[in-house]
Amino acid sequence: MRQLGRRGFVAGAAGVAAGVVSGVTAAGDAVAVPLRRTGAPAGTGAHHVARRELRGMWVATVANLDWPSKPGLTPAAQRAELIAYLDEAVARRLNTVILQVRPTADALWPSPYEPWAQYLTGVQGKDPGWDPLGTAVTEAHRRGLELHAWFNPYRVANHTDPSRLAATHPARLHPDWVLPYGGKLYYNPGIPEVRRFVQDAMLDAVRRYDIDAVHWDDYFYPYPVAGQVFDDDATYAKYGAGFPDKAAWRRDNTDKLVRETAERIKKIKKNVQFGISPFGVWRNAATDPLGSDTRAGVQTYDDLYADTRGWVRKGWIDYVCPQIYWNIGFAAADYAKLLPWWSEAVRGTGVDLFVGEALYKAGDPAQPAAWQDPAELSRHLDLAAGYDQVRGHVYFSGKDVVTDRIGAMDRVVGDHYRNRVRPPR
């Protein structure tokens, strides 16, 4: 996410008083789940009517951001940490965990396409001795949680030295597929064989596991780095005929990746959803009258060559989860302006809107004053309650859900998540 550059029934009053809330197992059986005693102030009660909504958290594995806490833990310790995140989701009355399973062109399952992720053992390609994704799916469903498998399509490494990759890594076997940029390695999105390969690698997980969704974050073409060039001139010369410029060709490459992946997911398993969590600004209104009333320094359409609004309007994806990672009133990108913009973007499309929330900013002394107020995130949900298109919220990231530096998550749970509910389906 940018911070790096970033299922249940309603409980009766007696159950709440007793400190339990009704949950639901994967089989649909009601179970008792202990309540987290947050001590958070009670809300107005205006938003406590239970309706289906997604309440999720991202659990990032890249650079061991959330999980595992460090590479090289025993399989038992890794599993225990993973289970703790799932239990935390239940305690917070969330219903979805979005687990990063392909952080850097590698895998957190025994993939025939790519090596084991180095974040497990410290050595890329080394078998960790267990199946993290398989375990996550089974244990999430056992707790009545959805498990969305989060993939990053094109990032290969957070460095530029191919020799540091596992000897069998596809990027080493096909060095012509890879471009260095901004201190990292990326697969070149303009090469058709690359686009097919990354789809095959991700879809292997769809075939093998009962995941509830395929989830992508905000990285397509890389974020711009001042003074550096993503050197795909030769690829453009080879494949770019018929496009007015390189930007249009790049956007078409990303469109193809999204559309083809969507079609292939549904052919494999119709009920697996496909969701994307883009950077929160498609285009500024000054660039395009259809854009948002923002002055963001990055626009996904122009800088990442990702027509996020177009994918929604064409119905290629099942949900969109824009990372609206700014506070209410933030001048360049106001949460209170972006929320209605995205609500209008999805209207009439059948695409669900979930809002990505910057929990990691709450209490960070480097952030503006609004983020020092534990109630800021709860106000986001208050605001969202006025927009029927908003079907839920996702919090970045798992570590921050657990530590909850200033009690912002406690406040959200106390004000808005009195009971467990099912995700929309």
UniProtKB/TrEMBL annotation:
The keyword S-adenosyl-L-methionine does not apply. It holds the Pfam family GHL10. InterPro entries: Divisome_Glycosyl_Hydrolase (IPR052177), GH (IPR017853), GHL10 (IPR003790), TAT_signal (IPR006311). Keywords: Lipoprotein, Signal. Residues 53-367 form the Glycosyl hydrolase-like domain. PANTHER family: GLYCOSYL HYDROLASE DIGH. This is Uncharacterized lipoprotein YddW, UPF0748 family.
